[in-house]
Amino acid sequence: MKILFEDAYLIVCVKPRGVLSQSDDNGRESMVSLLGGVYPVHRLDRETEGVMVFAKTKDAAAAMSRLVQSHEDFKKEYLAVLEGKPEKPSDRLCDLLFHDISKNKTYVVRKERRGVKKAELSYEVCSTLETSVGKTLTLVRVRLYTGRTHQIRAQFASRGLSLVGDRKYGGSADAGGLALFACGLSFCHPITKKDLSFVALPEEEGAFGLFDLHKEEPLC
Prior knowledge:
The protein is mostly beta strands and 220 residues long. Helix content is 10%, strand content 37%.
């Protein structure tokens, strides 16, 4: 596991695909069990890779949990590969989302009701290409302003732009898995008060391997 930063209070690392952010009742492999003695303060979907921060003390966990609630002070950014091309080169997407726990799937809905939450993100198109089979793929950078379950996947899929490898939301299968990677994280250290910023890139495989990722700089 790649460790990007560690001190007495926090550890920042790159979560691999297929590993849970936190422990569950089934005893499946999680970041908490792999790192040992840490406290989760935010999450990534099991299928999503990328940068995460964990607290090493209860006080740091409490402070980080408060910080995570402010998406101006705790910035999360992603790289994703979409099937298709957005109408605009950049935009801000605002939707109402409902997460069906029984199906573990999130839906964009039109009206507010119990369980419905507002979701907001912005994106910027990095590059677009045509595959050998005539399919259009687009690499985008995404900034989250809310942290809803499957938010990026559901918001883009509702616009006919499923992520590559995301079969749950209409995407095609891909050997590289879900083309979604948490590439940037920035926040103020809750104890030392130092501004911290971390960037990582996905492995050049699957859909990500079709693009020149090193020329793309996250927004952090």
